[in-house]
Amino acid sequence: MDDFGIYAVFGTKSPPQRLAESSCRASIAVPPSARQVVLFSSGPWGERICGNAELNNAEQIPITIGKLTPYNKCLSWEQWEEETWTDGVTLNVTLEGGNLDTIAPLTARELNGKRKRMSEEEEDDARNKVENCQDEENLCPNKTSVREGRGQKKGGQKLLSSTLFEFPAAPLLGPSRRWGQTLCPIDAQTAILIGGQGARMQFCKDPIWKLCTEDLSWLAAETLAEGPTPEGRIGHTSVYDPDSQRIFVFGGSKNRKWFNDVHILDTRSWKWTMVEAQGKVPPLSYHSCSLFRGELFVLGGVFPRPNPEPDGCSGSLHIFDPHLSIWYQPIVTGKSPSPRSGHSACMMQERKIYVFGGWDTPVCYNDMYMLDLGLMEFSAVKTTGKAPSPRSWHGSAVLSDTKFLIHGGYNGNKALCDAFIFDIDTNTWTEVKMPQFSVPRAGHSIITMAMPVSQQFTAEEEDGGSGSVCKTLLMFGGGDNEGSFYSDLTTIAVEEILSHV
Is the Repeat keyword given for this protein (predicted)? Predict the structure, then answer.
């Protein structure tokens, strides 16, 4: 007997109502007084894989709520204040990969309720099954995030990773292994992961995730926002503007396809828009992007050149003005960096960008340049101390007003695992040796955020520190350039890192 059903709750006081079923479609009339909709499934999914959910009105454009899947069995939607209901609105769900009249028996694997660690091959098999309900770029959302406890102690800090377990009908937990993605903080509790590429040169089918730092949990965010999401890519940049509360995604590449588009995610309305920009900017990948006074400062990057020449690197600075939706090139004086890509750029003291490393085939760099945004002047920085070896695709993060971190990267031969701190007051490099930096990786993401002390220390260590926060470095993903990719999330207190200087 098939006891599968789709139910809807309208508002906070109404009971669940089952949608009327016919073939591959389920629908129900929406009460005019309803302002919220919660949609969920109950019972075994059988051969079904996805259910597209829409609010339909003959006089308006359909509103897409998202997709129900065996891994995401609940959706919610709330009416905007400026919107008004009209009579005749229906909630419709169209199922894919099966219909409401058929059910397939659960496999022995699905009936096994024991938790067990999945091998990489089993994980890839599970992901391939989910990809059957996806188009080439988009994931059937939202996968559940589950962690194994609070993390394991290592070197005095907690090492937290996206541990993968196998559950009945829920084999995927946390972002897939990848490199070339971006991780962008938007507030003290949230960061947004976008894009990336994994094993066998496959672009990630789960391109957008939300990280909650309160419990270090992941939420697949493909359908949390309305509008056209950016096409899957690597080597792009994502920058958050706290004044407008928007994320700007620019550039990147996918196989031999290059991008120079600008996508904006408004984190207040959770809507994506693609900018129709004026001016010229080349398609770029592995560039750097910094926010200054509401504008995006894009430096360097790889751009495509027609055969027989190989892809070339840019040494130019392009600025995007979001208010006018226009690109322009400023007049810059001083000694500029040579063309490069895969470099890092750290904004220091709100007006100075420090550019380190990068490559322009076949040469890797370890030089340093500083762009004074007040004077629009470049200068080469003469450094002291043990400098990082030449590298690209490394991770970087600002630790304080005067210090930033460089970690890992690729030197043209292998991935690196060393870490260095640069002090802009003394122009001095200092190598930092910590167990959390011991894994060679490149193309990873490093950010700093203010997190509750309880996420960094054990219960005994946090006694008396209730409500306090600790500036924390978070490191996600990357690869070893030998075929292995990572999906681990490591957290380290910035104070602990600085204590090694």
Answer: yes
